[in-house]
Amino acid sequence: MSEQKEGASPPAANIRILEFSGLGPTPFGAMLLADLGADILRIERFGAGRPLGGDPQYDFLYRNRPSVAIDLKSPDGLDLVRDLAMKADVVIEGYRPGVMERLGLGPETLCAANQRLIYARMSGWGQTGPLASRAGHDINYLALTGALYPIGPGNAPPTPPLNLVGNFGGGGTFLAMGVLAALLERHRSGKGQVLDVAMVDGISVLLTQMAGWMQMGLWNSGRSNNLLDGSAYFYRCYETADGRHMAVGALEREFHDAFVAGLGLDPLQFTDYLNPAVWPDRFRRIEPIFLLRSQREWAAIFDQLDACVSPVLTFREAADHPAHLARHVHAHSGPALQPAPAPRFARSPARLPDPVVSKPDNAETLTNWDVTADAIRLLQENKVLG
Question: Are 43 and 362 in contact (CB under 8 A)?
Fold first, then answer.
């Protein structure tokens, strides 16, 4: 990762964001903005626990921004949040529709007081529609958008792709993009606006290419005989002798032929490789060959070839891979190892990850947001701050 240039500010420096803490896409989107240098204050629910447990020092989604626990059921707590929103460029919240309105912190209230405020609302189903008030998780949003159906082997149920596609791809990434776009628009208009960021919308956008392929007749409706679903013998994973796997992505002819040659086979016997009819027999021919060597041995062979064949690594193994070490893809912060921010900026690098602070200093945090020491002391005495 690029080193921080002396005197250089990150791309989103001096942008103040008030984030209402949540799970999944909301903290991920805020993390992306914090990595870019935004000054984010995360509001936690007063007395809230950790629903998924674990050691907070490894809560990387909350990196690069402090938090403060505020009692949102108290008038003083609500007044404090309204005061903070007056100083913010952006508010991010990921509660169910109506929750912020019931607290008196909805966009009608906060945006009326701060007309330059960008109010970003992250949800699964969106702020409108028949499912808006329903609960859901990543797998549900994938299911109803059509994204889950084609993933997985044809003879088994669909396989959830972790929460990478829904929470982080269709949710948090679109949240960060929307906020940045709204800031650009505000630079022209001088006005803020409300963003309705729904995972079902973002996931559907991620399906754009597949939607086109299906209507061109280039993608079958089932989970088989498709180019990228693991059916093609040149685009799938193979088990090795030690129970590990190699990933093959040899889509173009030159890479396909290099892949076949790396196995000790003759590429001339593997013509018409884009024809799904030949895939099953060729897979059955190649599968036992991979079982003859370990993953390390196959990696050594294909390291010498430009064939788009790679070992399937664990996270820890990936962090130690020479290519990632050379680019500083991962960063150490205290005892923790975490992915470094992306993308990379030549002149104004992103912020390096800070260790996650599990017990923030509320006084220092609020002082940085121009809350006076007397006000903080009074809030602490009234037990408004956690």
Answer: no
